[in-house]
Specification:
about 375 residues; alpha+beta; 3-stranded antiparallel beta sheet; 11 helices; about 40% helix; about 20% strand; elongated
Length: about 375
């Protein structure tokens, strides 16, 4: 039998003198690996008589255990020495900014929706919603749109093959005006609401998409006139664009659901190649931009909603949410709103912490 005491002393000395982790690992394989010297002693136990095995097995096991413990202790010592060396030689600059981690952003349309809700809430309006799949009575007939109106044509409106229980054709709503009808029927008068949401029309170019966003406003009360409408729109646009020099021009127009009807133009000027709203459109270097449609609610629409037009009057207006976002935040192609390009979203998106408030200004930094 090999002199176990000599083997132990030699092994422990060599382990203690190991200079690095690689040398220690080499020793471990040499002593305790499958072909290692101590592992070879373990294999000889099977060739011994029971008496010899009873005598030698504890000694060999003890040798193996001592060597394994010594290797583990030496490894800890080498690891600690390496850590001390790195701490002494390496530095961490705590003044460096934290690495940027991926984060989500709020889409400009959602941001503008929140801004609109904040402004109109301060003016006493509530937010109303309705179905995007509508029947043609709420979408057209109740809004005084004749059967021959161009908007009812197949090439302008997305129709479904289905009809409802009353035989009315179903379609994707072309505006949020049906929400006004549903709200008047359900709530009666007086009423002050805005109706933001998705709408659908068969149109597609740089300033039109088959799906876009619209917000409409409705006020029904007693003794309402065009002066109330103009003041409301001026107050809204000044708060939204955060400018006190917003100037409006109201032009006579025609909409089936309002009478009289007016197109609302806003003064603007070119600033570094970008249209900026503000100032009188007739001033030098300025111009007028058509922004939204509005008017006094047609008597027939009030009647369709179950109200008496001799008692109740009101005004309504509508504007594209996407267009408001483009004018305020400088986008030039509506189609990019819906492409899902991460670069576009990174550039124009908003932080979830940029919550619009009137006290801080409804605008946010993109």
């Amino acid at each position: 039998m090999t002199d176990l005491a000599t083997m132990r002393e030699s092994a422990l000395t060599r382990i203690d003198e190991a200079q690095d982790a690689a040398a220690l690992e080499s020793l471990r394989v040499e002593l305790l690996g499958k072909q290692g010297s101590i592992s070879g002693l373990m294999k000889t136990l099977g060739k011994m008589s029971p008496e010899e095995r009873q005598s030698e097995a504890p000694k060999i096991q003890g040798l193996r255990s001592d060597v394994a413990d010594a290797i583990a202790a030496k490894k800890d010592a080498l690891d600690s020495a390496e850590l001390e060396r790195r701490l002494a030689s390496e530095t961490l600059d705590l003044t460096l900014p934290e690495p940027q981690s991926p984060k989500g952003s709020v889409h400009p349309v959602s941001q503008v929706m929140d801004e609109l809700a904040e402004i109109f809430a301060d003016l006493g309006f509530s937010v109303a919603t309705g179905p995007e799949i509508e029947d043609d009575w709420h979408n057209f007939t109740a809004l005084n749109m004749a059967e021959t109106h161009p908007a009812r044509a197949m090439h302008d409106t997305f129709y479904f093959p289905d009809v409802d229980s009353e035989g009315r054709r179903m379609l994707l709503r072309t505006h949020t005006s049906p929400v006004q009808i549903r709200s008047m029927v359900k709530q009666g008068a007086p009423i002050r609401i805005i109706a933001p949401g998705r709408v659908y029309r068969s149109d597609s170019d740089a300033t039109h998409t088959p799906m876009f966003h619209q917000v409409e406003g409705l006020v029904i009360d007693k003794d309402i006139n065009l002066g109330h409408l103009k003041w409301t729109l001026e107050t809204f646009l000044k708060a939204f664009f955060e400018r006190d020099d917003i100037v409006l021009r109201l032009r006579p127009s025609y909409f089936p659901f309002t009478e009289p009807s007016v197109e609302v133009d806003v003064g603007w000027q070119d600033v570094n190649g970008r249209r900026v709203l503000g100032g009188d459109g007739d001033a030098p270097g300025h111009g007028w931009m058509e922004l939204l449609g509005s008017g006094m609610v047609n008597r027939r629409v009030i009647e369709f909603a179950g109200l008496d037009p001799d008692e109740w009057q009101g005004f309504a207006f509508g504007v594209g949410v996407d267009r408001l976002a483009m004018l305020k935040y400088g986008m030039d192609d509506l189609r990019a709103f819906f492409d899902g390009d991460q670069r576009w979203l990174d550039h124009y998106g908003f932080s979830p912490f940029d919550q619009p408030t009137l006290s801080a200004g409804v605008g946010a930094s993109a």
